[in-house]
UniProtKB/TrEMBL annotation:
<keyword id="KW-0456">Lyase</keyword>
<protein>
    <submittedName>
        <fullName>Aldehyde-activating protein</fullName>
    </submittedName>
</protein>
<dbReference type="GO" id="GO:0046872">
    <property type="term" value="F:metal ion binding"/>
</dbReference>
<dbReference type="InterPro" id="IPR011057">
    <property type="entry name" value="Mss4-like_sf"/>
</dbReference>
<feature type="domain" description="CENP-V/GFA">
    <location>
        <begin position="5"/>
        <end position="122"/>
    </location>
</feature>
<dbReference type="InterPro" id="IPR006913">
    <property type="entry name" value="CENP-V/GFA"/>
</dbReference>
<comment type="similarity">
    <text>Belongs to the Gfa family.</text>
</comment>
<dbReference type="Pfam" id="PF04828">
    <property type="entry name" value="GFA"/>
</dbReference>
<keyword id="KW-0862">Zinc</keyword>
<dbReference type="GO" id="GO:0016846">
    <property type="term" value="F:carbon-sulfur lyase activity"/>
</dbReference>
<keyword id="KW-0479">Metal-binding</keyword>
């Protein structure tokens, strides 16, 4: 069995363990991710929900994506750190913030999404494929 991906919030009140490899890893430059991260983008890893275990209690807030689908963001009620996202239209996936990993060096971004909304000062790896919005399919 491969080593699980583990992590959580800054204070340790929320912890997760994820079996399996990520389905998708990206930097997202949409305005929602910019606002939530307080920077130019959010960095994420998406996994099959079946392999995810979460302990601790998160506070949730919903927002509507450009697609019209609801995405729910989970953050710690103690330290306020955003940890994960779920999607009403894709209940079988679970997305974590790459910075919440115990070993953030395991994060390997594949693409940049919403590059059309990126700021000139947010310079990401030029070798990554960039999509104006979300990739097709």
């Amino acid at each position: 069995m491969d080593k699980p991906f583990t992590g959580g919030c800054a204070c340790g009140a929320i912890r997760y363990s994820i079996a399996g490899e990520p389905l998708f890893s990206n930097h997202c430059q949409c305005r929602d991710c910019q606002r939530e991260s307080g920077s130019g983008h959010g960095s994420y890893m998406t996994f099959a929900r079946a392999g995810v275990t979460v302990t601790g209690e998160a506070k949730h807030w919903d927002m509507v994506a450009d697609s019209g689908n609801v995405k729910t963001r989970g953050f710690c009620t103690q330290c306020g750190v955003p940890v994960y996202m779920t999607f009403a239209a894709q209940p079988d996936v679970f997305t974590i913030r790459a910075g919440s990993l115990d070993e953030p060096t395991r994060y390997r971004p594949q693409v940049v999404t919403y590059a059309a909304r990126g700021n000139g000062w947010d310079r990401l790896d030029p070798g990554l494929t960039k999509f104006e919005g979300m990739p097709p399919g």
